[in-house]
Amino acid sequence: MDAITCKNVCKVFKVKKHKVKALNSMNLNIEKGEIYGFLGPNGAGKSTTLKILMDLIRADSGSVKIMGRNSSDYKARKRVGFLPENPSFMDNLTGREIVKFSGKVHGMPPNQLDKKIIEILDLLDLSEAAERPVRKYSKGMVQRVGFAAAIVHDPDLLILDEPMSGLDPMGRVLFKSILKDINKKGTTVLFSSHIIPDIEDICTKIGIVKNGRLLREITSTEMKYTSTHKFKIIFKHDGNVCENILDYKVSGIDENLGFVTVGKEKAVDVIDYLRRISFDLVDIQPEKKDLETLFVEISGQRNDNE
Ligand SMILES: Nc1ncnc2c1ncn2[C@@H]1O[C@H](COP(=O)(O)OP(=O)(O)OP(=O)(O)O)[C@@H](O)[C@H]1O
Ligand SMILES: [Mg+2]
Q1: Whose alpha carbon is nearest atom 2 of ligand 1?
Q2: The pTM is what?
Q3: From the CA of 44, which ligand is nearest?
C-alpha cells in the first residue's frame, strides 16, 4: 500500500470572474518509507496538493488517498503530521501549550505526552522559550514550534509545506537531520521546497511539479548517475602545462594536477593526446548534472527562489 495516492486530481479556484486551474490532473504515488521532495516553481500547485491531502480544501475531481483511506476520512489523518506553509497559532498560547494541544488531538496519553514534549522542545532548541507566548517568537521559532507540533505523536506520515523556509542555516541542518532520523524510524515524509540543496541532501525521490501536474520523478540513485555525457579527465603534469589541450581549457586542481571537461565523443582523443605528451592519466569521472540543471531542463523555467 502506498502512503499517498493522488489520481487525476483537479482543482480550479474561482476569483471573481476568473478561474485559476491550480491542479490539472495531478497524479502522485508515494511509497511508504520515502522522503519525497515536491519541487516546483511558484504557483505550481504544491500547497494546493498538500492542502487537499490534509482535507483542508476539497478537490473538484479525482481521488486522494492517504495510508489507503480517502483523505476526507478523519481516521486517515490520525497518524499524519502536518506543517502548513505559513503556520500561525493563537498567539497567546505558549510553545509548550501548542505542542501539547497537538499531542492531545492526536490521542497521546497524558503521561507519555508530557515526557515527549520535554524531549521534543529540547531537540528543537525551544526549551528556554517554551513558557513564552508565541507572539513573542521569531519567524524561525514559530516554524520550530509548528514542526514540533507536527512530529510530537510520531506520525506514520509527515507532510510539510516549505518547512525550512524561515530557518537559518543551523536550523536547516537541524531540521534535515531530524527528518532523516524520523524517516529511519519508519515515518514517510513528503515536503515541498524551493531550496534545491535541501531537497538534494535528504530526499529519496523528487517530484517536479508545474502547472498543476507532476512532470517527472527522479530517484536519488538517478540523481547520482544523471550524466551530462561529459567527462572530467584528470591528469598529472610537471607544472608546465599549456592553457588548452586540443582546444579544451585546462583547469587546475593543484600545481601538478589539471583537468579538462570534454564530451564523451572526444574523450578518447584527449586521452591519446595526454599519452603522447607523457602526462599521466589520474582519473576519468562522468560529470553529474545537478538538480538545479535538471529542474531547469524539466520545467523549462529557472528556479530563482534561492
Ligand atoms: N485560495 C485560492 N484562491 C485562488 N487562487 C488560489 C488559491 N490558492 C491557490 N491559488 C492559485 O492556485 C495556483 C497554485 O497555487 P499553490 O499555492 O498551490 O502553488 P505553490 O506551488 O504552493 O506555489 P508557491 O511555491 O508560491 O508556494 C496559483 O496560481 C495560485 O494563485
Ligand atoms: Mg506553496
Answers
A1: 13
A2: 0.82
A3: 1
